[in-house]
Every structure is written in C-alpha cells, then in structure tokens.
C-alpha cells in the first residue's frame, strides 16, 4: 500500500518506506494465513528487514496491525473524499459525487484486495485489541459519504426521508461486499462493468429513477 513520505527529510522518508514494506508484508501474510499464525519473524523476512526493525517501528505485532488498519482505511477515506471533491469541482450533482465515490472505492479495492479482505473480516470480530481504533477509522470513511448525502438532502436534491447514517453505511458496505465478490468469484468482469452495475443501483435507490 502506498503512502507519501513523512516529514523529516531523508531519514523520515527512509523510515516511512520501511514502514510501508512492513505494512505490505503484514497484510499479505495475514491475508494468507491469519493474524495468530503470522509471526514477526515472517513479517520481517517478507519485508526484507531485520526482526529488530519491526520492533523499532512498531511495539508489537498487534500495534503493527492496528496501524495497518488505520493506514489502509485512511487511504480509502482520502480517495473517497478526493472523488467527491473532484465531482463537485466539475459541477456534478450529489448523486454524481456518490457515484464517483463508488468508483473510487472499487479502484481502491482492485488495488488492495488483501487489505480489503482483512478489513471486512475484522469488522465482525469483537475480541481484538484494536476494535475501538477500527470503529473510529470506519466512521471516518462513512462520514465522507454522510456529508454528501446530508448536503444533497439540505439542498433538496435528495429526499429528506433518507436515513443518512444508515444509507451511508449501506453504500460503503455495498461497495466492499460487491467488490470482494467480484474479485473472488467474478474476476473476469472489468472494473467498469462492476461500477456500471452499482451505479444503476445508486441511481434507482438513492437518486431516484430518471
């Protein structure tokens, strides 16, 4: 998963690159064999660094995974927000913005399918040390969709009968589940094809039949 270099010059950039390698190694291994079965030694080996480097950057495997979730959902949130902003700058409607976010979500999942699989699986667990962090970052992503829905209702573009919170969660969930189904069971379909199908659902259920 890509991220920009942190402030602090070359040293900060090198550390961020190392953390990026650890994120990528961890998400791949945990997707393959589960959190409990994945060791710090394996993460270090996959990332091509010494075991001590893992602990220099993260206090434990649990902290690494918690930061991985925060990092990944942060990237998703940023991509959703950017899609909505670009749509607005181009003069699009609120439904257009929602449609742009659906596509951005699909692009993200197409790029990071292993992370998305882990994220969705962790949403349903209740005994994890990072559960509260996961709920916070999940709400940050949903809040981006809620903002567009709220603006649409306030401006009269969308029905005021819409349950904003539940609709936002439903849209995010639709993209996550449909995309995972696409990657696992219908990989022959193109991103454009999947987006078109979800776009028709959006237009009919949220935007209204046009």
UniProtKB/TrEMBL annotation:
Pfam assignment, any one: TetR_C_24
Domain HTH tetR-type positions: 16-76
Keyword Protease (UniProt): no
Residue spans binding DNA: 39-58
InterPro entries, alphabetized: Homeodomain-like_sf, HTH-type_TetR-like_transc_reg, HTH_TetR, KstR2_TetR_C, Tet_transcr_reg_TetR-rel_C_sf
Highest taxon, organism lineage: Bacteria
Keyword Transcription regulation: yes
Keywords, comma-separated and alphabetical: DNA-binding, Transcription, Transcription regulation
UniProt-recorded name of the protein: TetR/AcrR family transcriptional regulator
Species of origin: Streptomyces heilongjiangensis
The organism's taxonomic lineage, starting at the top: Bacteria, Bacillati, Actinomycetota, Actinomycetes, Kitasatosporales
